[in-house]
Amino acid sequence: GAVVSQHPSWVICKSGTSVKIECRSLDFQATTMFWYRQFPKQSLMLMATSNEGSKATYEQGVEKDKFLINHASLTLSTLTVTSAHPEDSSFYICSAWTPLSSPLHFGNGTRLTVT
Amino acid sequence: AQSVAQPEDQVNVAEGNPLTVKCTYSVSGNPYLFWYVQYPNRGLQFLLKYITGDNLVKGSYGFEAEFNKSQTSFHLKKPSALVSDSALYFCAVADYKLSFGAGTTVTVRA
Question: pLDDT tens digits, residue range B23-43?
Fold first, then answer.
């Protein structure tokens, strides 16, 4: 089946630094990738939708200057958390979609801890 | 706007007993419904989907779900639960992007 690889699986960084998370579709071309954030024991909150070659569409309340999303190719999207703060600590999950696929395929998530 | 609701935060069952996780939906058109399972510190794994066709949908790991249009429900079921089924379960509805329910934590005791 379709595989989405997310890297790193966990990262610890100091407050004020930036962290990049990669999401790759390994065996299919993803027209669209979605980035979610999940707080402990809570549901997934959609942060943004990225389409290859165009700017990401951010959900209301998500700071686009803090969470930079790049979708440079049909197999790679990146989320960069800039100037990270402890409140950015969370579980971030990407998913990939193509018109020929249903359902969405998810990465295994990245646990970000900002100290 | 589309949405799903999972009325139960937690479901506890004994191993070998039937398992049901409830989900109701609200959509303006035809519903595309999904169930996902999440294990600790992992992404989501697809279980099953309803797009059209038979109301009873069979999925992975022995799970099935019944689409009920009159009750706008899409409950997830498993006839005989296993301890390894203990996880967080999400119902979702989609037109283009998925909207998730709040999740239901399932605990199966030995």
Answer: 999 988 778 899 999 988 788
